[in-house]
Amino acid sequence: MAAALCLRGAARSLLGRGRRQCAGRVSLAAVCSRSMASKTPVGFVGLGNMGNPMAKNLMKHGYPLIIYDVFPEACKDFQDVGQVMASPADVAEKADRIITMLPTSLNAIEVYTGPNGILRKVKKGSLLIDSSTIDPSVSKELAKEVEKMGALFMDAPVSGGVGAARAGNLTFMVGGPEQEFAAAKELLGCMGSNVVYCGAVGTGEAAKICNNMLLGISMIGTAEAMNLGIRLGLDPKLLAKILNMSSGRCWSSDTYNPVPGVMDGVPSANNYQGGFGTTLMAKDLGLAQASATSTKSPILLGGLTHQIYRMMCAKGYSQKDFSSVFQFLREDENF
Amino acid sequence: MAAALCLRGAARSLLGRGRRQCAGRVSLAAVCSRSMASKTPVGFVGLGNMGNPMAKNLMKHGYPLIIYDVFPEACKDFQDVGQVMASPADVAEKADRIITMLPTSLNAIEVYTGPNGILRKVKKGSLLIDSSTIDPSVSKELAKEVEKMGALFMDAPVSGGVGAARAGNLTFMVGGPEQEFAAAKELLGCMGSNVVYCGAVGTGEAAKICNNMLLGISMIGTAEAMNLGIRLGLDPKLLAKILNMSSGRCWSSDTYNPVPGVMDGVPSANNYQGGFGTTLMAKDLGLAQASATSTKSPILLGGLTHQIYRMMCAKGYSQKDFSSVFQFLREDENF
Amino acid sequence: MAAALCLRGAARSLLGRGRRQCAGRVSLAAVCSRSMASKTPVGFVGLGNMGNPMAKNLMKHGYPLIIYDVFPEACKDFQDVGQVMASPADVAEKADRIITMLPTSLNAIEVYTGPNGILRKVKKGSLLIDSSTIDPSVSKELAKEVEKMGALFMDAPVSGGVGAARAGNLTFMVGGPEQEFAAAKELLGCMGSNVVYCGAVGTGEAAKICNNMLLGISMIGTAEAMNLGIRLGLDPKLLAKILNMSSGRCWSSDTYNPVPGVMDGVPSANNYQGGFGTTLMAKDLGLAQASATSTKSPILLGGLTHQIYRMMCAKGYSQKDFSSVFQFLREDENF
Amino acid sequence: MAAALCLRGAARSLLGRGRRQCAGRVSLAAVCSRSMASKTPVGFVGLGNMGNPMAKNLMKHGYPLIIYDVFPEACKDFQDVGQVMASPADVAEKADRIITMLPTSLNAIEVYTGPNGILRKVKKGSLLIDSSTIDPSVSKELAKEVEKMGALFMDAPVSGGVGAARAGNLTFMVGGPEQEFAAAKELLGCMGSNVVYCGAVGTGEAAKICNNMLLGISMIGTAEAMNLGIRLGLDPKLLAKILNMSSGRCWSSDTYNPVPGVMDGVPSANNYQGGFGTTLMAKDLGLAQASATSTKSPILLGGLTHQIYRMMCAKGYSQKDFSSVFQFLREDENF
């Protein structure tokens, strides 16, 4: 593996040097060609709700795309502007930088290590970036398999939903070798406004999971506190104001308040439409739960929070924004 | 009761006029004496860890004190500068503005309605401000009893600990008739930098309880998320930074982080000494629990949070700052 | 008080001796008079769903009744056969053995210590038995007040619902001085098949509260385990059978299974009609919660269980049997 | 696969007929040889605390053993009486009935599908019984792989600890095709007194997981109820008696009471030594949690229970019996 990595390193430094020279010699033609056509193509696997606008932002920054999605219709936006491949393996044959954006750990395993997976035809020195939100231990396993092939894997899950994906201001939390972070940032910066280095491979996923667990907890906490206060006679707006200038302050209280009428422009102001679906929150908390179990970390509130969002999914809230937990806590007849 | 309120109203307006007249007759000497020494005395019952520095701040603002504490030694700081009385009733006989600062609902009931309580000798038109953290339904009951005597009750619990009490920058959350808020603020403003009107009587307590419940929840959430992230390989400082720029951000993560080494000047940096004791947090959550039960408000996370702090009290954490829940979650052998 | 208790003891021992003689000398007349008219009247306060059939069972055993209920219509079944009084005080004037059956702690406080309460006219040596389910600390307070009047108080809450009340096979859990247990059992045995001595005053309530907390927990546990097993492919009847011969066995699994189709003659077989309403379970868990807080006993599962039943009450399950938690856990669309 | 299954079916029916003939022709010699030597050898993989006594019980019933354990020393008890192989594959080469008893899902996957796993050399028609406690979805996956090789897989986890394994009175919960249950029972009946058919493959694991989840919940519930009752003044033995004749009754209260002094011969009577370790309970609840997540079944109490046992493991209780949760709830200073 050491040898493979050396080879890969050599390949990449050549490539890197090439790019740097390109940026160095400034003739008009060079500038044109760099911004128009000289960029080497980037592979993109997984063109769903999130992957689709992300890939388009890469294109806008001048990267030709080599794409694949398990559902052919997902590729139709790209038929004229990108090359649609028949498998992840074929993408890997044509592109040495690939981004994957997949719904679950199992999908990621299939796309990387399956019979037609990336690893079947990956080129040595390739940079593979997985932006899926998956179990960090799966990221680590994939990284090992990728390294065996002389390529490099980084995990880079995103924070921010479809809107942020379209606007190109996602946050990426990146795990992998620090010396390769700049190369990853070059691509990720085309799709997000914030690209944060988190540490060794898997820590990008870890950071996302920990953040979302805390988010899920403080949202329910905010909903419980607001509901209790209202029943004790407090005006919701005033209570929110008091919390926000006190030690109860949190993102769920000051930026995304779950009580209708307290803030504008948030899902609670729009019948909990849009935003971050309860089913996605439940999925992320499932990952937190699995990570907590495997690392033997007690998550008393995190575990209960997971179950509450599960209950909500079972009670018709799966498509609503997760702040609808406020509605879930209220009496049926009153709301 | 309407009649009683009318009487009380009449009494107060008479009294008020008296005070205003006093303020009206403007000789230079009078002005001097008003600002220096002519301020009418203020009663203060309960001179414990919090009450002691609060009372001293009132004195600094020129208010002569009429004081009582059930423990005589608590009054010794005031022997030369205030009048020490033998009972709350005696305080009420001498002062028509009284502040009470007591540990529990039962203490408050005793001090107001007990055989030697304030109500035995309260003057019509008196303003009684209770800064204790107690059950809002008790505040409402006390307010009713006080009104029967033609006086006025407001609840005004504080946020901020002994340090803030000394520095005079507590936050007061005030419940009671809005037209009397200015009168209360005149006194409370001597002891705090922030005096917030919350609504009808009991809403001051309600706001405090709701804030502290959310604080208790988000602190445990932060501790769980930080602990999980560390076990997944993240650097604690980096993880805190990521949470604080993301949707997991809360006061417990960005101002009072529970992980040793992440921030300076917080209890976690000082072996969880000082700060807000776990036993006090458990007490406030007990009040939240009782209020939730009586108003039939579900508090799934609030209830579990209450129990976790109770467990901590049973495990030797009662005197440590409540952020020591991070330590509680870690393995014995590692910490 | 010691003197008063002595007097009371003397009065009762006279009475007791009289009864024993009556039972000893067996002439036909004696038997008749014992069963027909010689029994001294018993007071009964609170003739609701439970109190009504309990009082009737006392009558069937030959006890003349002196009754009171705050709702006059509740007394109409007894108009011809018992004396309807205008207040608890009047009941106490006419009867030296009184049973109270009231919905809440506050009602009990009012009936005993209110302006027209039992204690206004209670006779020395009276035996007052409270079968309400209330806070054990309230029972202890009432016992103290009753003792001050030279009378005796015992707490004797019941297990078993309206059906058991009608059939006369309730279980009574009795707290109070052991030497008076026989006297209490004489009356309680007319209404229940099981009269258990639990210890000092308050322990009857304590036993009931602890039992119902454990019942509430194991019912939800059973519902969760059955639901999980069914989703994993197990037949519900077979799973119940396996649990019942294994270490998961509990009353909720083997006697009152919450899954429709597993057992006959239980609420789950009848759309969760009848049985023990969720709102009553939530009330009992509220008492458990308050007792746990005041004794600083951690109840992690008990606290969460309390909140789950509260949620159910808020979601339309308040009138259904508490085993409907199984239905609550299922997806809306499937059930 | 259909063809493979037909082949397997043919092979097995030949085998089965052989065995049945053996049992049919009753000469003295036949009986002798059947009970002494004619039994075909059985493979056994995994000779740890549980596997060791289980294998010995098979031997006592006359089955020659072909064994393997990853730790050679685990095989030394069997060196003279069984054949020790170098890998699971080698076991499969020599035995067409194999029992596996392994600690985790990962171990099971390795033993069956690894490079030297059973499936490398498994004979068509073989019967493979896995008594490990693992994720039911893993059992299903293994069953599919085994079927592809023309063999048969059943899951048969056990209830009962090392003592029951030695005494040969384990309970087996068996999942797999019903027509093969008799063949499995022939072997399992040598090691257990209770062999229960649960349904399709994976339902054995499901039944065990559901039972243990309910057990874990009701044990904590019992500990909380007993602790609360004791603090409210009840005698522990009396409280246990009351619970056991009431609706709070469960295996944890009547057979395995967690309070020292209530029962003899249980771990609580022996400083929580022996019994079922907290770490094993936490493991089983981790499986329940994973199954609940994958089937989207809410387990509010199950999830919290999981976390409580995790906390206990982190606090020095990992090797104690799981009923030590009672001790965990008590104050440090009192216990």
TrEMBL record, chains A, B, C, D:
What are the EC numbers? 1.1.1.31
Which superkingdom?
A: Eukaryota
- GO BP annotation list: L-valine catabolic process
Q: Pathway, per Swiss-Prot/TrEMBL?
A: Amino-acid degradation; L-valine degradation
Location of the 3-hydroxyisobutyrate dehydrogenase-like NAD-binding domain = 202-328
Pfam families per the UniProt record, alphabetical: NAD_binding_11, NAD_binding_2
- Residues in domain 6-phosphogluconate dehydrogenase NADP-binding? 42-199
The record, for InterPro entries, names: 3-OH-isobutyrate_DH-rel_CS, 6-PGluconate_DH-like_C_sf, 6PGD_dom2, 6PGDH_NADP-bd, HIBADH, HIBADH-like_NADP-bd, HIBADH-related, NAD(P)-bd_dom_sf
Reaction equations catalysed: 3-hydroxy-2-methylpropanoate + NAD(+) = 2-methyl-3-oxopropanoate + NADH + H(+)
Any one cellular component term from GO for this entry? Answer: mitochondrion
User: Has the keyword Acyltransferase been applied to this entry?
Assistant: no
Q: Which UniProt keywords apply?
A: Branched-chain amino acid catabolism, Mitochondrion, NAD, Oxidoreductase, Transit peptide
Annotated active site: K208
Could you say which residues bind NAD(+) here? 40-68, 102-103, 107, 133, 283
User: Top enzyme class of this protein?
Assistant: oxidoreductase
Drop me one GO molecular function for this one: 3-hydroxyisobutyrate dehydrogenase activity
Compartments where found: Mitochondrion
Q: Does the keyword Transport apply?
A: no
As for family, the record states: Belongs to the HIBADH-related family. 3-hydroxyisobutyrate dehydrogenase subfamily.
- Tell me the NCBIfam families matching this sequence: HIBADH
Descriptive protein name: 3-hydroxyisobutyrate dehydrogenase
- Species annotation: Monodelphis domestica (Gray short-tailed opossum)
